[in-house]
Amino acid sequence: MGFVTDSILINEEQLKGKVKEIGLQIRHDFQDEPIVLIVVLKGAFVFASDLIRVIDGKVTIDFVVASSYGNQTETTGKVRLLKDIEVNITDENVVIVEDIIDSGLTLSFLKEHFQLHKPKSMKVCTLLDKPDRRKVDLKADYAGFVIPDQFIVGYGIDYAERYRNLPYIATVKEV
Ligand SMILES: O=P(O)(O)OC[C@H]1O[C@H](OP(=O)(O)OP(=O)(O)O)[C@H](O)[C@@H]1O
Ligand code: HPA
Ligand SMILES: [Mg+2]
């Protein structure tokens, strides 16, 4: 028993087009203002590396490492913050960069955590949004693709630490 990749849900070309769209939208919304992008590792590392190259102007980047899935396809319900930010976000415009919002638990934990630093503004940007499995009420300010209730991998996103290197988003199936 295990999981293998099944079919391609979002291909490379679709990803590229959407990432550009989101990047341009973010820059348009903030105009010349500086922004701090906080990338949620590990999953968002591929998305973020493409996204930052289509947002021009004053951008600072920092990372957090948050984990709640481990080797399973359901959230454990417990978000562990394995690495915190290092830059100062007080009075800054923060954009949190996520690969996927599923139950919403990771982002709701992180939003509350960052709010303690009193940023000037805080927005959420996610490549994928899976609204069917929400456990907390949470909406992204920038969302790339709304996806159905299926476990997906690729473009940075894993199942049990595998498949992050796929250049596309694929569904997985149990075999
Ligand atoms: O909305 P949620 O149900 O909280 O799910 C979303 C989070 O889960 C995944 O992280 P994971 O815990 O797998 O860590 P990883 O990024 O290191 O793979 C994903 O990368 C998001 O950060
Ligand atoms: O569908 C998913 N795939 C991989 N990791 C995830 N973390 C939340 N949802 C998912
Ligand atoms: Mg994961």
TrEMBL record:
Record field: catalytic activity: GMP + diphosphate = guanine + 5-phospho-alpha-D-ribose 1-diphosphate; IMP + diphosphate = hypoxanthine + 5-phospho-alpha-D-ribose 1-diphosphate
Signal peptide: none
Keywords: Cytoplasm, Glycosyltransferase, Magnesium, Metal-binding, Nucleotide-binding, Purine salvage, Transferase
Domain Phosphoribosyltransferase span(s) in chain numbering: 13-159
Pathway(s) per entry: Purine metabolism; IMP biosynthesis via salvage pathway; IMP from hypoxanthine: step 1/1; Purine metabolism; GMP biosynthesis via salvage pathway; GMP from guanine: step 1/1
Main location: cytoplasm
Compartment list: Cytoplasm
Cofactor(s) for this UniProt protein: Mg(2+)
Molecular function via GO: glycosyltransferase activity
EC nos: 2.4.2.8
Family: Belongs to the purine/pyrimidine phosphoribosyltransferase family.
Protein purpose: Purine salvage pathway enzyme that catalyzes the transfer of the ribosyl-5-phosphate group from 5-phospho-alpha-D-ribose 1-diphosphate (PRPP) to the N9 position of the 6-oxopurines hypoxanthine and guanine to form the corresponding ribonucleotides IMP (inosine 5'-monophosphate) and GMP (guanosine 5'-monophosphate), with the release of PPi.
Protein name, UniProt field: Hypoxanthine phosphoribosyltransferase
Source organism per UniProt: Fictibacillus barbaricus
